[in-house]
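Run log // design_07
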């Protein structure tokens, strides 16, 4: 988690051209949300591959689930509430 948080902090410093700060709690929260997003994408891609009787998950399976996943994340976030409950933020 610390490696992911460091990468997010670096991303913020590169992307922001003005002087700003991001709290460590915000970085941890964003890192956790990205982790949950990737876990949910993986879960859905595995399910998609299974529905197509495939033994392996390929990039095409991710491409098929991304529109639904992105819509869910942007519009409601409710899809991720159960995932957040399964993956609590750990204090460091």
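design_07 sequence
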């Amino acid at each position: 988690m610390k490696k992911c948080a460091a990468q997010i902090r670096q991303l913020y410093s590169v992307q922001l051209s003005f002087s700003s700060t991001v709290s460590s709690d915000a970085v941890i929260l964003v890192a956790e949300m990205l982790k949950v997003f990737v876990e949910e994408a993986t879960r859905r891609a595995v399910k998609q591959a299974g529905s197509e009787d495939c033994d392996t998950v390929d990039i095409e399976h991710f491409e098929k689930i991304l529109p639904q996943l992105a819509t869910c994340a942007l519009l409601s976030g409710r899809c991720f509430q159960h995932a957040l409950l399964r993956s609590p933020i750990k204090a460091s």
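The chain has four helices and no strands.
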